[in-house]
Amino acid sequence: MTPQITPSPATGRLKADLTLLLVSIIWGSAFVAQRVAAEHMGVYLFNGLRFLLGALVLLPLALHRQTQGPRPTWKTLPWMLLAGALIFTGASLQQLGMRYTTAGNAGFITGLYVVLIPVILAIGWQQPPRPAVWLAAALATVGLFLLSTGGRFTLALGDALELAGAFMWAFHVILIGWLVLRVGVPQLAVAQYLICALLSLLLSRLTENYSLLSVAGAWWTVVYTGIFSIGVGYTLQAVGQKVAPPADAAILLSLEAVFAALAGWLFLDERLTVVQLVGCGLMLGGMLLAQAGAFISNRDKPVEPA
Prior knowledge:
mainly alpha; single chain
């Protein structure tokens, strides 16, 4: 009889970390697809198609796990609708901003939601953050100024839209943190993506006029962001975070912004000045510093085997 070999905790952690690194690459590179889509189809049509596709990809997982976790109720339904509305607003602002800014800028500014979450909790819910978070917010603010303006006292329209979207993502994360204790995660994901898709397609029907030919020219952007960014990315994130400590997850998922900038440079020939690069560095430092509590509290925590 062949003995079974149990993977070591270190091996399980490495696999989880590599999984989360792949998620960051997928999500970062998706900003290139969004940038291309912004030139070929309307904001609402693109978001409607990709979130609908993402929901369909996740639907089998939601049906398979429908007996796991709390089921939606009439009390949780309004909050699920709100979660979908926040995704719709954040995605709309993000995609609209992509018309006026680069994939790299969009990636870094969107990542500011990590810093915004504790600040919002402090102001709106009287949950004062650690002093390090205020320093992280200051670093991120200076970094945003340098990235968006190049050192000049102007804020680019696209970057302002991305920043507004980052606030929506921050509110969404806060809401989801409360909602996942009351609704199964796969079911919640599918529901909020469907809500976002329906709102987007409705507004597209009312406000946009794009030919099928223009949409056909960028069909791959819908497929990539819908299947890989939303469907596969979400699934791999859940798999990786089952094993990876929060400290690892925070670092690796923050690299999404870096991969967005790299993908923009490789595929769209987007360039950053030295001042903008310094801004990117400050913003990334702020994102990581905002998660310093997770780094410290999990530094000596044993890793569960895969």
